[in-house]
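Appendix B, record 7
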Amino acid sequence: MTLNVYLSGEIHTDWRDQIIDGASGLDVVFASPVTDHAASDDCGVAIMGPEADKFWHDRKGAQLNAIRTRRGIEQADIVVVRFGDQYKQWNAAFDAGYAAALGKSLVILHGPDHAHALKEVDAAALAVAQEPAQVVQILRYVLKGELPG
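Structure tokens (predicted):
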């Protein structure tokens, strides 16, 4: 059984690489949003022309990024959403809600400092992890029924 896993959320650390590397040898296909922050922010105006107003600049980018994000979440068997410490990730919360509304298997990844703020998001998830290695262990268990150790 091949699992399609969409890796959503913060783009400032290497958590995606840790999961992808850790899942080597498992039957998993990963997808994610564009993780180049500048490209993600500026894709709309780079492709469809400049905007004088930052609101419209951001909106063009958000709408283009949504094409990729919606497709990735809709095609996923499992959606992993990472909330990092550096920024408020409203887009990650939106992705988690979208995945939950679609009935996707949702894994939330965040540190203990976010437990209270994300309690509703966590409640919608089938698993809440604190480390990327735990996500790898979840994938291994789902695919092979193997416990860590």
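Remarks on this record: The mean pLDDT is 96. Strands lie at 3-9, 28-31, 78-82, 105-109, 127-129.
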